[in-house]
């Protein structure tokens, strides 16, 4: 397969894999509540995940170290174990939210009862991970997620106010509830800079056997171009929510409300594409979170790991991702609302984010480790600027969650 | 039930009723799927019923007693319309009726909110 | 051993991934065994791998959490002479099973191996 084709596939998979239930919920709710005011936050988050992901990919290629390998080495066992527990808690919550989201979307598609569909979702995900090779997981769910481009088409068809959209690129508060504005900034940054994506990405880089300098270009293109184009999907959801829901006073409380935003301008085809896109994107995210949980455990405790291995060759790794799906199933079948779990998981992932970001930033800038591929001046500056942003957001996350009653006021 | 709570609950009812109206509109124009309408209308109905129950169980302060009763009644009406939509997701004639009923409920809730 | 005059035990050995002669991952360096009295000559005896080796290093709130071991030995001492090289990983001269490492994976493999397609 030609390299250009391979790179294009990687980028397309990254676009489709960018959006998960957290992005959908927070982009739609922010658009419905604040209009275009937080488009800049999506872009800031996108640059953040590009930087984080590119550093993780570079460390994977040069030092052959995935994230949790680096976490334990740089933070030591005590802080590393605390980081692992915090990250796994967030991974488990996120996985539950995503599995619940898959069941909800299946319900919209087929109109069948919810509880049996939770079991169907679990089966689809288990079978997919068990039988599909790593690249096929990325491609099937990444390309399927590309159907969410229907929201970009819907956004164009609604003829958004370009002046207001442009104004949304500049941070400004135009609401009687500034605390809610800040809460959604935290939510959007948390949904965009989702740590499980980089655990999965860096482990994939080690599994794929990336080597410098050639694969560093692939890493840069995938991280930058893939996520940049993926941002278009999140912004599109925000735009359609702003255009349709703000004038009518609709507060999106369901995934179905977001799908309605594609159906209104584009009819039945728009609805079906939106639902299918959500199915693949959220399923892909479920798989990413379960595998990330398994990668983290295996890397921290030194077990054999890898999706390229036959399951019996990496048995504890295999049992762990299955356990993540099992736990997600138990949480969702107990009746907890997946949308509620989504909002909590996004906020808590922001709280835990500095713990994994810091070791990666340190290793990526370490010339002893990375040689000529250590952070240059631009990467270093951006890396440290984003550390400050991440620290501020992580400290503000839980107080804002409580003070704004999860954004409801 | 305080003025703030009343305002929030009115907004919630407006949101649910308007969304239901948009959903019904899709059925009228034949631009949606019955599986989606059935499922989403059930969700909206369930939330509206919960809202009606919560509003009805509050102790209104000041001059809110009559308005609170009206809001609870509107919520029950909206929930009933949404159940009808869920039970008949491919019936355009019934959907047209549900659409206007829900739009009226949303307008009435907005008027109640303005009057507070 | 790699061509270095000194080896930073804390940064380059402790907490590193261990791989055996066949390249199989078989634990992390949970602690380092050093012998010798204070004031005398200290020599590195070997690496310690296992939940008992991490007991002293766990945070107070997680003192009882050693992670799921699946039947790993509580503590294995890998003699320094069994080490082939220290680079991004600690590579051993022997297979994991010869040294008593990765027993948890061997036990877990028996369950996973029963599932078709494993």
Describe, in plain words, how this protein is organized in 3D.
The complex is a heterotrimer of chains A (409), B (116) and C (118). Chain A is built from 16 helices and no strands. By secondary structure, chain A is mostly helical. Chain A has one domain (3-93, 134-277, 351-403). Chain A is globular, with a radius of gyration of 20 Å. The termini of chain A are far apart. The model of chain A has no long low-confidence stretch (mean pLDDT 91). Chain B is built from four helices and no strands. Chain B has helices at 3-28, 34-56, 65-87, 92-114. The termini of chain C are far apart. The longest helix of chain C has 10 residues, at 103-112. Chain C has a single domain (9-112), classed as PRC-barrel domain (SH3 type barrels, Roll), CATH 2.30.30. Chain C is built from four helices and seven strands, in the order H-E-E-E-E-H-E-E-E-H-H. Classes of the chains: A mainly alpha (409), B mainly alpha (116), C alpha+beta (118). Chains in contact: A-B, A-C. At the A-C interface, helix 4, helix 12 and helix 13 of A face strand 2 and helix 4 of C.
Reported for the largest beta sheet of chain B, the result is: none
The shape of chain A is: globular
Strand content of chain B is under 5%
Percentage of residues in DSSP E strands of chain A: under 5%
> What overall geometry of chain B do the principal axes of the alpha carbons give?
elongated
Provide the number of structural domains of chain A: 1
Helix content of chain A: over 70%
Count of helix runs of chain B: 4
Task: Give the distance, in angstroms, between the N- and C-terminal Cα atoms of chain B.
Answer: 12 Å
Largest interface: A-C, 34 and 34 residues
Topology, pairings included?
The complex is a heterotrimer of chains A (409), B (116) and C (118).
Chain A: H1 3-18, H2 21-34, H3 39-62, H4 67-110, H5 114-131, H6 134-145, H7 149-157, H8 162-167, H9 178-192, H10 195-207, H11 214-248, H12 255-301, H13 315-333, H14 338-364, H15 367-370, H16 377-403
Helix pairs in contact in A: 1-6, 1-11, 2-9, 2-11, 2-12, 2-14, 3-9, 3-10, 3-11, 3-14, 4-5, 4-10, 4-12, 4-13, 4-14, 5-13, 6-12, 7-11, 7-12, 9-14, 9-16, 10-12, 12-13, 14-16
Chain B: H1 3-28, H2 34-56, H3 65-87, H4 92-114
Chain C: H1 9-13, E1 17-19, E2 25-28, E3 31-35, E4 43-49, H2 51-54, E5 76-79, E6 83-86, E7 90-92, H3 96-99, H4 103-112
Parallel strand pairs in C: 1-7
Antiparallel strand pairs in C: 1-2, 3-4, 4-5, 6-7
